[in-house]
Each structure stands twice: as C-alpha cells, then as structure tokens.
Amino acid sequence: RGGGRRMWRIAVRRDGTLPRHRLNHVRDILRRSASSQQGSGNDGAAQRLAKWWRGQAQSHDETGDGTEGNSAHDAVVAANGASAVQYPRVLAVPLQRRPLLPGILLPVNVADAAIAEEIQALRSQGRPYVGAFLLKENIEEGNKTMEQAEEDMHEIGCFAQVHAAVADGKGGTQVLLMGHRRLKRTGVGSKNPLVVDVEHLKDHSYDASDDVIKATVMEVVSTIKDLLQTSPLYREQLQYFAQHSGGFHDASKLADLGAALTSAKDTELQEVLEQMDVPERLNRTLLLLKKELELSKLQIDIGKKVEEKISGDQRRYFLMEQLKNIKKELGIEKDEKSAVVEKFRERVKEKGDLVPKEAAETIEEEINKLQALDPSSSEFNVTRNYLDWLTGLPWGVTTKEVFDIEHARKTLDEDHYGMDDVKERILEFIAVGKLSGSTHGKILLLSGPPGVGKTSIGKSIAKALNRKYYRFSVGGLGDVAELKGHRRTYVGAMPGKLVQCFKSTQSCNPLVLIDEIDKLGRGHSGDPASALLEILDPEQNATFMDHYLDVPMDLSKVLFVCTANMLETIPGPLYDRMENIRLSGYIAEEKFQIARRYLDPQARDAAGLRPEEAGLTDSAIRVLIDDYAREAGVRNLKKLLERVYRKLALKLVQVEGKELEQARKEGSAAPNPEGAVVQAKHMVTETDLEEYVGPPVFAADRLYEEPPTGVITGLAWTSMGGSVLYIEAGVLEQGEGKGGIRSLTGQLGEVMRESASIAHSCARSVLSKIQPDNRFFSESALHIHVPAGATPKDGPSAGITIATALLSLAMEKPAKKGIAMTGELSLTGRVLPIGGIKEKAIAAKRAKIKEIILPEGNRRDWKELPQEVKDGLDAHFVKVYDEVFEACFGNPAQIKWQEQEEKASVV
Ligand code: ADP
C-alpha cells in the first residue's frame, strides 16, 4: 500500500488455473481498474496482473475447463479484520433491490457519484467497509437514484466489505459487496454522501444443541440440496459460503444463506435480516426455501410442458431419423431407397450374364435414376414399378425341354381318353422336336367344339414337354394394350400378357395357350390381330417389344398353342402360320369312357365322396349321355355328374351323417371288413336320374321321329359341333305364274339363301324330267324354313337337302326313313364336297340315323374316320343329284312308271 498500489489476493486452483467464472470476474475488475486509473502512472501491478491473467485465460481455454465447483481456493478475498469498534459510523449504501445478508456476496450498482467517490476513497484508505441498507418499498423508481434520505432506508442493514468497485462507464459504479454482520442505524453522521451512526448487532443467544434447531438445520440443508438439483444457479453462492463460513453447522449463517438463495420478495428477505432470533430466522428461511423449491419445480414442469408441446412432432422426427441411422449402422434395415435399389441389384446379379445387354443397360440406367428421386414422389413409384418388372423377368431362364416320346405318350394318356389322332399329332410334333432339337417357331391350333378338351390337352402338352403352362383368352379382346402393354406414361400402366406370362412362369420357354383366337375382338384402339401376329410370328417374335417394357424380349422359345371353335373367323395371316389339329367331338361310346374313367371319379372327389360310398351305374351314365348331354364335347356331362354327386353328398350327410363318419373312422383305423358293418354303397341308377338332374331335356335332334312329306333331315356343322337339322318346305299359295321361293326363314345366312335358290332350280329340272306334266314348281309360292331359328345358320352344305325337301313336297312323297344328307349342289345337279364330315357323322349317330348321303368328294374323309364312328352308319357317296334322289325316293323310272300305272288305273 506504500506506493498507493492496490493489493489483490487471488486464490487459484492447485493446478494453477482459475475457474471460468472467476476469470470473467477478474477480467471485469481489470478492465475497470485499468480505465479508472489511466494516467495515474502506478498501474504497473495491474498490468502485470493483466499479463498473468491473459496467460491464465489462455491455459483455461486450452484445458477447456468451464465447469465450476471442484476448486478449493477460488475466490478473490480481501483481508477481513474489520471490527465493530473501528466502525461506529459507516457510509450508507442504498440497495435498490434485495437486502444484503451476512456471508453473502452481492453486486450492487451505485448510481450516486458522491457515494461512488466515497467508496473509492475508502478503498484507497484501506477501509473498504460500508453499511448496506435496503430502500423502502414505497420509494418510487424514479427517485431511487437521487440523493437518499435516511428515512427512505430500512433501519436494519448489513455491514459490508467492498470487494471491488469498478466504474461502468455510464456514470455509475459496480460494487461487489460482501455482507458481514447486521447493523442498526442509530443516527446521521453527515449527509451527501450519507454517513450513518450504527450499532453492530449480535444474534440473540440460542441453544445450538437443541434438537429442534438441529433438525431444522438439517431440513434447511436438505432443502438447499434439493434446490441445487433443480437449478445450478445457486451453486456459486453455496460454494463460496461453504468455504468461508466453515460449513453448514452455524444455524445463523445457514439461515442467512438459505434466505439469500431464494428469489423471495425484498420485504421477506428484509424480515429475515431483521430477525435476530436465530431459530425463528431459520424457520422463516426454511419456509422461503420450501416455497422456492416448489417454485422451481413448477418452473421445470412448465418448461417441460412447453417443450413437449413444441417438440412432440420434432422429437418424433428426430427419433425416427436416429432410429433409421441406428438400423443402418447395425445393418438391420436399409432405408427404403437403398433397400429397393439393393433388391434390384441383387435380382440382376442372380441372373448374371443371362440378362441381355440391352436390358442390363436399361436396368442400370433406371437404378441410377431411382437413386436421384425422392422416395415419396410419384415418379419414384413409376420407376420402381418399372424396375420391378424389368428385374422380375426370367431373362434367359428356361426349363429343360423333354422330347421323350414314351413319357409324352404316358402323360397324354393319363389325362385324356381317346383323341388318338390328336395325341398322334402331338407325338409327331415332339419327335420332330427331338430330331431338330427344338420346337421353335411352331404354333399349334386346336380347333373343335366346346368341351372336347382343347384347353386341357394343351395343359397336358406342357406337362409332356416339361414346359411351364400359361393360359390367357383373347375372346372379345379389343384393346391392344392387353397384349402389348401400355406406355409407361399412363397412370396405372401395365405390361402386356406376354410379359405377365414370363413373370408368372419365371421361364422363357413356357407353353402359352391362347384361348378363343377365333373370337378376337375388333380393336377400338389398334388391331389386336396384328398385335397377335407380331407375337406369334416366328419371323418377328425374337425381338418382341412390349410398350411398357420397352426392351426387346425373345418370344422365340415360347410354344404357342391356340384354341378355336371355328376356323373361318381366325384372321387369315394368323391362320396361315398355324398347324391345325382338329378335335371333332365324341361319339356316345367315347363320352361314356371319358365319363367312366375321368369325369365320374373327378366329380366324386370334388364332392368329397369316396368310391366305396357312392357311384353311378354304367346305364345311368349312358342315359345321361343319350338323354341329357348330347353335345359334341363333355362339358355338360361333367356338370351333370357334378350335380349328381353334390346332391348325393347332401343326402348322405343329412340322412346318414353320423354313420358315414363312423364308417369312415373304422375304415381308416382298421380295414377289417369281416364282421364290421360295411356302409352300403349308394349307387345312382338310370331310374334315379330324374331325382338328381330333372327330366331329360328335349333335344332339337328329335324334332321328328319320322320326317313327313316336305321335310328332310340334313346334317350341319357349327362351332358347337355337328348337329342334325331339318329342312321344311311348304306351299303358301298356288296359281298360274306364282312359282318361286316366297319366303325363307330360320336365320339363314347369305350362302344358304343362295343354296335354296339353286336347289329350287335344280329340283324343278329334276321334276321336269321325271314328271313332265307336274306344274308344281311353276305354280307354287314356296316357304322354306329351318327350325331352331335362334341359331344362325349358313353354309352351302344344305343344298341337296333343300332340293330333296322341295321334291318331296312336289311329289307328295316322304323320303326314306332314317336317312340324312349333306352336300353342296350346283345348278347342273352336281354334288360338291363339304367340311366337317366327322362332326356330322357323330351327330348323325347321336340322332340314331342309319343312312347318310355324302358327296363323293368326301369319301376320303370318311375313310379316315375311326371305325367306331362309322359303325352302324351306312354311307352313300353321290356325284350328281340324281343319285340322291334315288337313295331317297327309289328309282325315278319306277316312280314315273308307277304313277302312270296309278293314273291309268284311276282312269
Ligand atoms: P375346351 O377347351 O375344348 O372347351 P376343356 O379342355 O375345357 O374343353 O374340357 C372340358 C372338360 O372335359 C375338362 O375337364 C377336360 O378334362 C374334360 N375332357 C375333355 N376331353 C377329355 C378326354 N378325352 N378325356 C378326359 N377328359 C376330357
């Protein structure tokens, strides 16, 4: 102090550093003292200190130790030896907020220049002690900075040591006060600055060993601890206190500290200050602390709630992100995009070199594109779908084709009865495949009436060749996109059937069955026929381009099998490329065998019945075939059998459910028929049939048991197979010059109308030869009708039939019984060959016809027919109409002669 220099004692940590809060504090002091002492010349110490401090600050920053608390010596403390005797009179420092309590450090802003000056003077004199008094509540804010009268202050204050006093540069001074003991104003020493006489107060004496006090002390301490947990704000005060008060045992100091820690109102704190009774003060403090604790808990609660409110969604988002990252890190789950990309890459890798270059390039491009897209965008989805298709196709994967004739024969026989010619054709086909190594470029066409097994034999062929099977129908198909796919730009775009087929069979050489190719729709957008041609044509289909896929696909390994009911409506260019295999329908015996061997067991199985429980007798099946299901195929027969078994099942379950169950159990547990009650088998006989399937349907085949005069039985061939049809001729009107066909009914097509006209002319010339006097044709207006008018009929093959019907009418002579005919007629009376011989023969047999007249040109077809079809049928082959006439009515010469005889006898 000799040189007028100030002395600071700075306690440092053992490691020679200062905690940050102290550093800041010192920095403040230094800055202020430097500025207030500018030019005084004796600031060497301050500068040295500043230099030292800079080093401290640096090392502090280096260690980065910003925590407070562990240090043992961490305060700037001035020597404290002021006694009450030395200070009967002190400078009165007014406190605007919060009273100063003993043992507490309090920074105070001294606005009054006189007081500040005095403080500086006291400090330089080495007597830095003042009295700190709280200003009374009612002093208005504005007046507080004015010169203070003593009445404005509380009477009780605190004797305080000035730890630091730094001008704040705005005319005020920052003073750091350390409270020591209580003071009471007793009088005024001098004014401006106000100096007061004081009495240094002592606590009332109390018994420190009292249990209640001890307990209260403990409670205060634990409350302080709780408070610290909720808020670290008070830690500094507390540490300081702990170091300088010698612990928490002193009830008086503890009470002061506790109160100072709270944010209680000034008056409440002042009350604590004024309370000289220690136990009472302790109680007050405890109360304040408890309040504070509640408050701080409340504050935390409020803080939490607000935080929750704000961050509910955000938190979720962050957590999800975190979760994703964690999963990614652990390899549990990739994020969507990379998982998708990986999946596609994996698929491509699996297929390896088999993927054609073009496809591989497209896939790579699309994957790169995908990676750049936002997973929630619609384009991402479009690209992903596209990639899904691209990578999901069986590029280059084929099943090993089997060209084993024996195996094929067995497979075909297993599933189908008869059809020998069809099977033979298929075996030939396989043999060729065996020799040439492939069946490439072949398109099979299975044509025939419904229900003859076209679809199911297609499936068998796939099995025989060990190819995957895929079927789709083009019946009524009008949209080319079904075959060739949509462009990807369409919403909900899909690839075409062929791509779908590849994906679902996972094979590049499946057997594709295209059903109902004869019923291909007319395209409303594009032409389905030409799209189909593109698919089927071996010249083009190695680089088939689906609109959606947009990458060439090789269809050349696919074996195409088409089905059709009739050939006429198949688009020409398509038909040209096909190899037609005809399935003509079954005769009764074949149907019986199919039913007995395949359909009956299948239907029984489907109904859940066992062979030992139920069945149909042979004769019942025959009746079903003859009277209920006369179609060319067996689909109706199959349905009927299924109906029989369903009814049977219901009956058994209703009537004998229990016994049936029992019998089944015994049967399967111990197959011991001897002694055991054997369940009676339920056989459906022909007489039961009505009960199961109703009365026989009336068949058009049976319109006439014996056709009368003017009606002739013809044979027709439709897409439903062969059938028997009747041609009826009648006279509308007779008279001079009225001859001709007036009316033609029965849904006849153009060709058939022409046939009728030709037949009329031909019949007329025949009649004129036989009965030159018969003026029937020139004088009769005729009506020709073909019953079953609901079905359209067309074709030339009814020519001879119409002519015969007209002649029968003209001669008033019925044709021979049990005869039917088919053949085209020319104007000169020649009979031309027609199609569908087998179907017609089968139909004739079904209708119990014994004799048929066929064109000579069809003799070869007849020869090729299986013997069982020909059996029981007497065929006449005719070249000219006269032969037909003879077959129906007998020798024309005889007719003439007979008639003359008759006439003569009449005469
Ligand atoms: P299509 O395709 O010619 O209309 P389907 O193939 O659908 O006829 O045949 C109808 C049913 O008749 C199928 O259940 C089929 O198994 C059966 N079927 C047809 N022909 C035979 C046959 N020759 N042997 C055994 N079952 C046959």
UniProtKB/TrEMBL annotation:
The keyword Transferase does not apply. Residues 706-891 form the Lon proteolytic domain. GO terms for molecular function: ATP binding; ATP hydrolysis activity; ATP-dependent peptidase activity; serine-type endopeptidase activity; single-stranded DNA binding. Its EC number is 3.4.21.-. One of its GO terms (cellular component) is mitochondrial matrix. InterPro entries: AAA+_ATPase (IPR003593), ATPase_AAA_core (IPR003959), Lon_bac/euk-typ (IPR004815), Lon_lid (IPR054594), Lon_proteolytic (IPR008269), Lon_Prtase (IPR027065), Lon_prtase_N (IPR003111), Lon_prtase_N_sf (IPR046336). Keywords: ATP-binding, DNA-binding, Hydrolase, Mitochondrion, Nucleotide-binding, Protease, Serine protease. Residues 90-293 form the Lon N-terminal domain. One of its GO terms (biological process) is protein quality control for misfolded or incompletely synthesized proteins. It catalyses: Hydrolysis of proteins in presence of ATP. SMART domains: AAA, LON. The active site is at residues 797, 840. It is found in: Mitochondrion matrix. Residues 53-72 are annotated as: Disordered. ATP binds at residues 448-455. Pfam families: AAA, Lon_C, Lon_lid, LON_substr_bdg. Belongs to the peptidase S16 family. This is Lon protease homolog. It comes from Picocystis salinarum.
